[in-house]
């Protein structure tokens, strides 16, 4: 199971109209988990696609026509005591509201966001669908562990003119997920494409930002890399982020550096959490400009971060044919430590001293 759509039956839908949000939980077609497990591929595909259809929603809208939408990604993690716990939903709630405001939509209230995340997971768990904790995940520090991906997103009301959305829908779906990067390579390449420009929408988790990312990532994959890295639009020399994740460089000086937030960088919740954990470990962490030359010459270890990516090592970076290999091409000690710490907290193996996990009974 990687990152593929297999929506669990219970979803949430809210619509803004007459100045207020009205939400409902929808139970899409399903059988029992056992009956679904016994289905053949065609039967499963038909059921999954019926769960992804909402025939009472407008097809022609500002999202389908012009990409006007934003989304979030967060996860619920199976815990040893058979409960589930969501990582920092309050932070995603804040970012979602900011994204909606950035796109000039009425922001979705943070409390409704957190409730909808908790409640969809709770209801899908009650139907018996969600993955439970497996002791064997501990053997590789949860590298191959599963979790439940929660995807809140907006869709606009119907419309065809180039317009803003004043009466959007907010949907929340749950789908299973394991590791995001499936390629065996952990090499990255700098792309010539530009993800975000100053005064643009790069800081918003806007769907349209992911079009360039998908093109650049597909080119990187075709060239044998796992990931692409974007440079800034103005100078074409400062590191920005990966295709759908932030990026960190552990430098030879002992400093852990990540590009500073600006209007072209996505403010990642995993990024923010890693900065906090690394500072707790006594590391000097800087949010600042990192030139591609510095990254190529001074890096000891490199990793990308995100809800889907976790903390994934990058073992080399290639720029205009010049390849810098980090830590002899192997995952470095700091990268493993950060990855194990964050996964340990998320799967309940390490104490949650920051109060980041929201347990679902
Ligand atoms: C996430 O890390 O959850 C993201 O939102 C990136 C996504 C495009 C896979």
**How many runs of DSSP E, i.e. beta strands?**
17
Mean pLDDT: 96
What share of residues is helical?
25-40%
* Helix-strand category: alpha+beta
Verbal overview:
There is one protein chain. This protein has 361 residues and is of the alpha+beta class. It contains nine helices and 17 strands. It has a seven-stranded antiparallel sheet with strand order 2-1-6-5-3-4-17. The chain has a five-stranded mixed sheet with strand order 9-8-7-15-16, with helices on both faces. A five-stranded mixed sheet has the order 12-11-10-13-14. Helix 6 links the parallel strand 7 and strand 8. The longest helix is centred in the first third of the chain and has 17 residues. The mean pLDDT is 96. 2-OXO-4-methylpentanoic acid binds next to loops.
Keywords:
five-stranded mixed sheet, globular, seven-stranded antiparallel sheet, 361 residues, 27% helix, alpha+beta, binds 2-OXO-4-methylpentanoic acid, 26% strand
What's the arrangement of secondary structure elements?
Elements: E1 10-17, E2 20-27, H1 33-37, H2 41-51, H3 62-66, E3 74-78, E4 84-87, H4 89-102, H5 110-126, E5 147-155, E6 169-177, E7 187-190, H6 209-222, E8 227-231, E9 239-242, E10 246-251, E11 255-258, H7 269-280, E12 284-287, H8 292-298, E13 299-306, E14 310-314, E15 316-319, E16 322-325, H9 333-346, E17 357-360
Parallel strand pairs: 7-8, 7-15, 11-12
Antiparallel strand pairs: 1-2, 1-6, 3-4, 3-5, 4-17, 5-6, 8-9, 10-11, 10-13, 13-14, 15-16
Helix pairs in contact: 4-5
The structure holds 2-OXO-4-methylpentanoic acid (COI).
